[in-house]
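Bumping with the actual sequence this time:
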Amino acid sequence: MANRTFSKRIRNLRIDHNLSMDALAKKLGVTKSRISMWENNGTVPRDDILICLARLYGVSTDYLLGNDALEECRPKEPDRLAHMKRNLEKLNNQQLLKAESLLRIVFPDIFEEEDL
């Protein structure tokens, strides 16, 4: 029996962590076709792989399987903020410093606690 919740969650987590199917497969020691089966067919992996996935993404196995809602465990990040974070992660150190400088000028109050 397919687990549609697992299918959706495992795909969303992979994308949120900027991992391709190939990259995730390498991290877990499985094939890309295995990842595809999880995401498209809702096939649930062996227990040891399920535990590795949960640790990799910082979630519980219950969440992955749909037995627990992640939203209850931690606040959901707005899509716009998640999008901005993904793009900031693409910047090199010099570009990040420039972005931080601009943010400090436009929003000085968000950096006050850190400067103390």
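The tokens above came from a reply further down the thread. Residues 44 and 75 are 26 Å apart (CA to CA).
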